[in-house]
Amino acid sequence: MSSSPPPSSAAASPSCPKKMIALRSSDGETxxxxxAAALQSKTLENMIDEDCAGTPIPxxxxxxxxxxxxxxxxxxHAEPGVDDESLRAWDAExxxxxxxxxxxxxxxxxxxxIPTLLNLTCNVVADMIRGKxxxxxxxxxxxxxxxxxxxxxxxxxENHWAxx
Amino acid sequence: xxxxxxxxxxxxxRTSNGKKRDGFGTLPDNVVVDVLGRLEVDxxxxxxxxxxxxxALIATAHxxxxxxxxxxxxxxxxxxxxxxxxxxxxxxxxxDWGSMEKKPIAGAKSPPALRDITVDRSCxxxxxxxxxxxxxxxxxxxxxxIHNPVTWERVPVPHKGSICGFFLHxxxxxYRLLSYRETPNGFWYQVDGLGPAACIDVGMFRYRPRExxxxxxxxxxxxxxxxxxxxxxxxxxxxxxxxxARENAFCFMPHPGDSCLPSKGHSNMHLVEMQGxxxxxxxxxxxxxxxxxxxxxxxxxxxxxxINLQWNLNRHPxxxxxxxxxxxxxxxxxxxxxxxxxxxxxxGRGLFQHNLQSQTIKRVPxxxxxxxxxxxxxxxxxxxxxxxxxxxxxxxxxxxxxxxFGRKYLL
Lengths: 164, 411
Description:
The structure holds two protein chains of two kinds. In chain A, strand 1 and strand 2 form a beta hairpin. Chain A is about 50% helix and about 5% strand. Chain A is mostly helical. Chain A has a three-stranded mixed β-sheet with strand order 2-1-3. Chain A has eight helices and three strands; from the N terminus they run ββααβαααααα. By secondary structure, chain B is of the alpha+beta class. Chain B has two domains: about 1-60, no CATH class; about 70-390, TolB, C-terminal domain (Neuraminidase). Chain B is built from nine helices and 25 strands. Chain B has helices at about 5-10, 25, 30-35, 40-45, 50-60, 60-70, 325-330, 365-370, 400-405; strands at about 75-85, 85-90, 90-95, 115, 125-130, 130-135, 145-150, 155-160, 160-170, 175-185, 185-190, 200-205, 210, 220-225, 240-245, 250-255, 270-275, 275-285, 285-295, 300-310, 335-340, 340-345, 350-355, 360-365, 380-390. In chain B, strands 1, 2, 3, 4 and 25 form a five-stranded antiparallel β-sheet that branches. In chain B, strands 5-6-7-8 form a four-stranded antiparallel β-sheet, with no helix packed on it. A four-stranded antiparallel β-sheet of chain B has the order 9-10-11-12, with no helix packed on it. Chain B is globular and about 75 Å long. Chain B starts with a helix and ends with a helix. The interface of A and B includes residues 103 and 155 of A. Chain B: Pfam families: F-box-like, FBA_3. Chain B: InterPro entries: F-box-assoc_dom_typ3 (IPR013187), F-box-like_dom_sf (IPR036047), F-box_dom (IPR001810), SCF_F-box_component (IPR050796). Chain B: This is F-box domain-containing protein.
């Protein structure tokens, strides 16, 4: 192992000299992500600016399983030279998962403020809603907070145009 | 340690028994609004009935406006056929350029279709703002109406003046009406809300809008071609009037293009606000020139195109042989501009689609009008044009503006 000469008068740059950022999930797993990929997340961007010590950034709201996928998404979207069409295809595959996972992605994207992932996953859920009747929507998403008969009547009166 | 996971995150129910969890229950309100805001109006009609939470989130003016921001607009046209002193009301249509969204195959584009929107035939369209139509009742002077075709709501708005603007005030986020009244010295303008709220005087000016329309403005500014008392044309330098909603003030600006001959005035020039831009078009003998306002601050207009209207007149006969060829084009109107295609209304002949690149012109069928026969294409036909977006903005949200008067009229 050759010893490299110390960096010559490294100007005190505000950004971390290392290019990899370490993240720790809620269940204790550690992940490494390139800085360029991490900058896709506004939350991480702010944290990176503040702390360069190199200790893993704790993310108590995201489990390891989901964080792994989020790292994958951000890394892919930070890759240079990927054309639009293949990226779209990759995105479509990425969200081709069960409903519960899509919601986990949404929560992670919301917490980490990743606009591209949030946009993608919200569109997926909107697509799930399209074409369904109110009853089908309730069943599909297992929605519990439904109306009492009196409430339903009031909604019908106030928004009768929705019941045509 | 591991047992703690499900305790810390109770929303993560065990999936081992196959039961689905309520995914939406885990999302904060702003995210649910983000998802629902992507749905079309028809789908939101279902969504609003799903549960208490969705209803509470959707049935607000805030959501309606957020939703409007994502929505794309269509152009609605309202042909007004008149033969002094009577007006003929044929209905309200929206232009469906549906086929335009697909990638064109070697220039082959199917023509747009005109679809009928049912609207009370006793009203004329003046304009549209955020999916709300403003109409004037034909039989009753000074009676206006605000109508949302999605929510079926219509509220009468009696008004002493002539309404010439209907817009959303950018600072207060309230809807406002701009109107004027003729006085011996000129025209008195004021702005007020939708109900008997306080009105704000703007001032006395020499000119009024030339056409009976109520634009909703582009970036907080409304524009009109104007005339003076008794229909006298203003000088070219004062031919366009601009109202700034923020400053509650008018300014008068010159129209683009060359100065007009004093005898002619600017009757051949027309202004239309379309898809967030302001266009002026002028018809001079055989040409139609179209300008678009690029920058308001510097009042910079850019010529969009010059169209040679020298078409084969025999292909589109007009039923009034006494007109000269100049007169033929004079009352032509620009109705829509999308993706390099213009839609032109030619009184006496019909609707035409003009491709800017290939310079080709085709007639567009307008079944309802065509069915009426040539009478509806009489020379004195004018089309009112407005931008429309299907909107969930219920007039109930604006109830405070309507005060008590409006409430009992809400259907």
